[in-house]
Design a protein that fits this description.
The chain is of the alpha/beta class and 466 residues long. It folds into 2 domains: 237 residues, ABC transporter type 1, transmembrane domain (ABC transporter transmembrane region fold); 213 residues, Rossmann fold, CATH 3.40.50.300. Helices cover 60% and strands 13% of the residues. The strands form 2 sheets. It has a 6-stranded mixed sheet, with helices on both faces. Strands 2-1-4-5 form a 4-stranded antiparallel sheet, with helices on one face. The chain starts with a helix and ends with a strand.
């Protein structure tokens, strides 16, 4: 029953962690390593259930020890006091030596496990480069070093965890001998009268020692795993976004009014930006790398909160109450497109549930539906992990279809075609201009050839709009 309760908490913990991560702001995911989040949900949550299990068993054994100890005090308090002093002293020694080492190995385990997830994530995410550079051996050596250190921490923990049992068994035997010697010395005339007392204490010790061992083992297991408790507690108590459901409409314009933004205090990335984007207009934002173009786009989309100033939609300030509604107006095509392992339809709709006709219409507008139906399995074509089975241009068109699926008022391209060759880029940009005739289009670009049909072009330089 205790195991069912403790192990059954894994679902609750992992679900709560995942919910918490999804509720955090976009900035958190830029600062956090995704492999650490995966490790916490999969491994640390499981380890925490082990702590809970150990704690429950420890409490049950403490109850047993108290009962046995009370019985022994009732039989002979002097001998029980002597036994208590011996047990407490030896337990203190074990805690200061064995338990201290186990705690340190628990800290090492968490560090090595984090590196373990990181090397796996890095390897599978850069598999092409590893093959190209012939880095298999170097990668294996790094993995081997981390794996050995992780295994060593677990080996040390398992080895030291068994020591208290062996130590306490030997101690129990010595105590029995001491009790017999003591009683023989006290009652030299008639030792037979003390046999009942000796039998009682031997029986008590026979049941007390295993309980004491389980208490120490549970305590050591908690120490070995306590780092998981720290990690999960910190992640559970992190403040999440509290977004309201207030509706916001986009009928006239987006106004950016004296907006400034800093990642680090007193080091502004954007400085006093003012800009008006009329509904239905086509505007471009250009500038050198690091000038703040993508940051400005992220603020317009409501992913960042400005340091000063704000973004107004039809004279209504974007805030936590209406930002969720505002995001639903935006179709976004990023530079780096992530396609998950599934079919085209799932990737366009960004989920397992989709409207087949809407998917086909979006793909038709992105000028890729005919190709998929002629050469593959149509909207059910498998894309592979991160779209590995598609070319760069095909991935880009799927991303366009994803942005069009919900028929958003605004299309935002954040250097969406910068990785394509000039001919493919020109074709895709022509398609985007054609399908966005009745939409507001915001383009971030390096190449001027991609923004020739824009109504206005703004340049960001050193965080200022020119």
């Amino acid at each position: 029953m205790l195991s069912k309760f403790s192990k059954g908490r894994y679902h609750s913990l992992s679900y709560k962690l995942f919910e918490n991560y999804l509720g955090r702001n976009y900035r958190f995911f830029l600062d956090e390593n995704s492999s650490n989040l995966t490790k916490t949900i999969i491994t640390e949550a499981q380890v925490l259930t082990n702590i809970l299990s150990a704690l429950l068993f420890l409490m049950s054994e403490v109850f047993v020890v108290v009962l046995i100890y009370s019985f022994m005090v009732y039989i002979d308090w002097k001998i029980t006091l002597l036994l208590s002093l011996i047990l407490f002293f030896n337990s203190f020694v074990l805690i200061k030596t064995i338990s201290k080492r186990i705690k340190q190995e628990g800290i090492n385990r968490e560090i090595f496990l984090g590196s373990f997830y990181e090397i796996l994530n890095r390897t599978f995410g850069n598999f092409k480069m590893i093959k190209l550079k012939s880095y298999e051996q170097q990668t294996l050596e790094i993995f081997s070093d981390i794996s050995l250190k992780y295994s060593k921490s677990n080996i040390v923990n398992e080895t030291l965890s068994h020591f208290p049992r062996l130590f306490l068994e030997a101690l129990g035997f010595i105590i029995v001998v001491l009790i017999i010697v003591y009683l023989v010395y006290e009652k030299q005339d008639d030792i037979s009268s003390s046999m009942a007392l000796i039998s009682m204490f031997i029986l008590g010790l026979y049941r007390l020692m295993p309980s004491a061992n389980r208490i120490l083992s549970g305590y050591n297991q908690i120490l070995f795993s306590y780092k998981s408790l720290d990690i999960i507690y910190n992640d559970m108590t992190y403040t999440i976004e509290n977004l309201g459901n207030e509706e916001i409409c986009f009928n006239n314009s987006i106004e950016i009014n004296k907006l400034s933004f800093s990642y680090v205090k007193n080091k502004p990335v954007l400085k006093n930006i003012s800009l008006v984007i009329e509904k239905g207009s086509k505007i471009a934002i250009i500038g050198e790398s690091g000038s703040g173009k993508s940051t400005l786009i992220d603020i317009i989309m409501g992913l960042y909160e400005s340091t000063h100033g704000g973004v107004y939609v039809d004279d209504i300030l974007l805030n936590f109450e209406n930002i969720k509604s505002w995001r639903s107006h935006i179709g976004y095509i990023p530079q780096h497109i992530y396609l998950f392992d599934g079919d085209i339809a799932q990737n366009v709709a960004f989920g397992d549930t989709f409207d087949e006709e809407k998917v086909k219409e979006a793909l038709r507008k992105a000028n890729i539906l005919e190709f998929l139906e002629s050469h593959h399995d149509g909207i059910y074509t498998d894309v592979g992990e991160n779209g590995l089975k598609l070319s760069g241009g095909q991935k880009q068109r799927v991303a366009i279809a994803r942005a069009l699926y919900d028929d958003s008022d605004i299309l935002i391209l954040d250097e969406a075609t910068s990785a394509l060759d000039s001919d493919t880029e020109k074709k895709i940009m022509n398609e985007i201009y054609n399908i966005s005739k009745n939409k507001t289009l915001i383009i971030v670009a390096h190449r001027l050839s991609t923004i020739e049909e824009c109504d206005k072009i703004y340049k960001l330089e050193n965080g200022e709009l020119k």
